[in-house]
Write a structure and sequence with these properties.
Elements: H1 3-9, H2 15-23, E1 27-29, E2 32-33, E3 47-49, E4 52-53, E5 61-66, H3 88-91, E6 96-97, E7 106-112, H4 115-122, E8 130-136, H5 142-150, E9 153-154, E10 163-164, E11 169-172, E12 178-183, H6 190-197, E13 202-210, E14 213-214, E15 224-226, H7 229-239
Parallel strand pairs: 7-13
Antiparallel strand pairs: 1-2, 1-3, 3-4, 5-7, 5-15, 6-7, 8-12, 8-13, 9-10, 11-12, 13-14
Helix pairs in contact: 1-2, 4-7
């Protein structure tokens, strides 16, 4: 692999930036200053920028706190996408969102280059949990919560065909107008339609956990970071 491709795959620098760092003597390969940005290196090489080793990533896993008004897509001619929020060098890695959040839903989006894991995580038979914090217009009663937990039949409309939602978990806060809901499926506008079936209305919705991984509270809307090794292991276990 070329050095500049290595640096781009690591999310450290673009090809142009790599060439500049090489000319400045800031990149070393196995302790020797890199000769050219297009020199061949392998994944086992010790590559450092300013003395700090650059980790090579065969696959990339990124946690993003999606802000409101951004779409979960790789490309959109009229809307800002989650990919648009990444640095230019990462936008070239063919990252894609593992599952989707509605445009006005905020919170945890997993971006990855791992198509196999994404397919497994999203497979209905895996029952991978997604946790959302919600707020509704009217207080929810105990009867509403029981119905929601057991699964409600959603009538056919412009969203989708009729179906009954899978059982879910709900933690209702003291105000009875907000709480947390845990789903193991990801139907189109599912939570919104569930609340509509209760003659209620979602006023705010944010995903706070995905596949056993909590959204990092330090990430402001629009910010991102790589998954830690422990989080990657949790993700791999969820996909088994």
């Amino acid at each position: 692999m070329r050095l500049d491709k290595y640096m781009t795959a690591a999310g450290i620098a673009s090809r142009k930036e790599t060439a500049h760092y090489v000319r400045s003597g800031r990149i070393t390969v196995n302790g020797i200053p890199a000769a050219r940005a297009d020199m061949q290196v392998d994944a086992a090489a010790c590559i450092c920028l300013d003395g700090i080793q650059v980790a090579f990533r065969e696959v990339t896993y990124i946690m993003m706190n999606k802000p409101q008004g951004v779409v979960s897509a790789t490309d959109d001619p009229t809307e800002t996408t989650v990919i648009d929020l990444l640095p230019k060098q990462l936008q070239k890695l063919n990252l894609f969102p593992c599952g989707r959040l509605d445009k006005n839903t905020t919170g945890f989006v997993l971006l990855t280059t791992d198509g196999v894991l994404s397919h497994r995580i999203l497979a209905p038979k895996r029952h991978v949990e997604k946790v959302y914090r919600f707020a509704v217009k009217y207080p929810l009663s105990n009867a509403d919560i029981t119905r929601l937990k057991d699964g409600v039949t959603l009538a056919s409309d412009s969203y989708a065909e009729e179906w009954k939602t899978a059982p879910c978990k709900i933690l209702l806060y003291e105000d009875c107008k907000s709480g947390e809901i845990t789903l193991t499926e990801g139907k189109y506008h599912e939570i919104k339609r569930m609340m509509e079936a209760m003659h209620n209305q979602i006023t705010a919705l944010s995903r706070i956990a995905f596949a056993g991984i909590l959204l990092d509270a330090a990430l402001a809307p629009g910010e991102w970071r790589y998954l830690t090794a422990e989080e990657e292991e949790t993700l791999q276990n969820a996909a088994k």
